[in-house]
Design goal:
Structural class: mainly beta
Number of helices: 1
Number of domains: 1
CATH architecture: 3 Solenoid
Radius of gyration: 25 Å
Largest sheet: 20 strands, parallel
Distance between the termini: 74 Å
Shape: elongated
CATH class: Mainly Beta
Helix content: under 10%
CATH topology: Pectate Lyase C-like
Strand content: over 45%
Number of strands: 38
């Protein structure tokens, strides 16, 4: 049986997310071409057809033969299981095999699954279970999986339609893994997520992921709590095409708790960062927005934000220290109230954060402000930004914040280029130096709202335009 998959590359605005149901996740360009990955001395290589007797394209389960083949490879010291082009089917694994029943191809330590080509090597789930994962690292007793990976293949789920509230059937489910790689892999036709990274993982590296026809998220990282249990996740070149009947979701969703995340070189609609401590988000196109919650020490740089949903390009609640630098923003009005970056730190501390060297334009006037920052900490810097009109009502708006500094910005707006205000005592000081104000009624306005009787002390030096 030969499957030919034609994937329509269409984007849909995604929104929100819901908790998983079913068995707990705590349990446990195509055609990149043949790639030769170096193996340490002593590693073996088994051809699953020639050496192990798997029969592709017959519509019968290859699961038991796969487990036998993998056990043989592990006994040899680990290495590669090579899959020639073809469709390899697997139903849920039976009990007594050391893995949980809802995994088609459970992968063990020291094993790399290598396909002949991404488009023609297909591991397919024939399970009707809405909790089946095509490939996973979950073993009974939480046995760790070390130095394994998946390369050059497509993982095909058995989705017939998206089922509201049921999002457990993933292409890949990674848990208790260290030094796990995924390179040039497509996850397709799943009722859950294309790629799911659960807790107790260390040093995961993924490059060239394609998620197609999924019902929830393209890729998810979830430690099960805001306190991180996983460290070191690198995702590069993520492609996301949700199922036509997918009701919501994210291209990338950090649901909770991860240290040291890198997300780069991807074209995405919506990104969610919850509980990320130490993040490096760079060189992406983010078409709708980036949503953040809690976390700290996240650097967002060299991205292109398009704000296609007019919802605001970045929306972060209770975030810790961050750097938003060297990005370009095309911002709009609408659902985001014309605010391009919204940062609310009522229960967070963003002391030492910065928004610097960004370029802001307004693609759907009127736009209220490139930055609204409220209830925030001290030592905040706004340096070298360019707010280019027309369309902006205000420049940078800081409401009830601590000390801040603005150096070398160019701001074009119709009312105030900088607004600094406080309600509960004397905040500040605010220092503005070498800024250029274009069209602003006020270069700097202090304490603008009714009842704001306290004003920032301000030090204004060598600025150009109305003071």
């Amino acid at each position: 049986m030969i499957f030919v998959a034609l994937f329509a590359l269409s984007f849909a605005t995604l929104d929100g997310g819901v908790a998983d149901s079913g068995p707990s996740d705590a349990d446990a360009g195509f055609d990149a071409g043949p790639v030769v990955y170096p193996m340490p001395p002593g590693f073996a290589r088994l051809n699953v057809v020639e050496d192990c007797g798997l029969i592709p394209n017959d519509g019968l389960s290859d699961g038991p033969a796969f487990l036998t083949c993998q056990a043989e490879l592990v006994a040899l010291g680990g290495g590669e299981l090579y899959f020639p082009c073809g469709v390899y089917d697997s139903d849920d694994q039976p009990s007594g095999t050391g893995t949980y029943g809802y995994y088609g191809f459970p992968i063990d330590s020291g094993v790399k699954l290598v396909g002949e080509r991404q488009s023609c090597t297909i591991l397919s789930s024939s399970s009707a279970s809405l909790s089946n994962r095509v490939v996973g690292t979950a073993w009974v007793g939480n046995r760790p999986v070390v130095d394994s990976g998946i390369f050059n293949m497509t993982l095909m789920g058995a989705r017939s339609a998206c089922v509201a509230g049921v999002y457990q059937a993933h292409g890949v489910f990674v848990i208790n893994a260290t030094r796990f790689e995924i390179v040039n892999v497509t996850a397709s036709n799943v009722t859950g997520d294309g790629f799911y990274f659960s807790h107790n993982n260390q040093d995961l590296s993924y490059d060239g992921l394609t998620a197609v026809d999924f019902c929830r998220n393209a890729a998810t990282a979830n430690s099960g709590a805001l306190a991180p249990t996983s460290t070191g996740l690198r995702i590069r070149n993520l492609v996301s095409v949700p199922a036509p009947d997918a009701p919501f979701g994210y291209d990338f969703d950090a649901e909770s708790g991860i240290n040291d995340l890198e997300l780069s070189n991807s074209d995405m609609l919506v990104v969610h960062l919850g509980g990320v401590f130490g993040g490096n988000i760079h060189d992406n196109v983010i078409r709708v927005n980036l949503i953040g919650y809690v976390g700290a020490d996240v650097r967002v740089h060299h991205n292109r934000f398009l704000d296609e949903g007019n919802r605001g390009a970045i929306n972060c609640d209770h975030c810790g220290r961050y750097q938003i630098e060297d990005n370009t923003f095309a911002c709009g009005s609408g659902g985001g109230n014309g605010t391009c970056i919204y940062l609310n730190n009522t229960f967070g501390d963003d002391t030492g954060s910065s928004v610097s060297r960004n370029i802001f334009t307004c693609h759907t006037p009127p736009c209220r402000t490139p930055l609204l920052r409220i209830n925030a900490g001290d030592h905040f810097t706004m340096n070298g930004n360019k707010v280019l009109g027309p369309g902006w009502t205000e420049g940078f708006l800081n409401d009830n914040t601590g000390s801040a500094m603005a150096i070398g910005n160019i701001v074009e707006a119709t009312t105030s280029c900088f607004v600094m205000a406080a309600t509960d005592g004397l905040h500040g000081p605010f220092t503005a130096t070498l800024n250029r104000y274009v069209g602003c009624d006020h270069g700097v306005k202090l304490g603008i709202y009714p009842g704001y009787t306290q004003k920032f002390p301000a030090f204004l030096n060598m600025n150009e335009g109305n003071p």
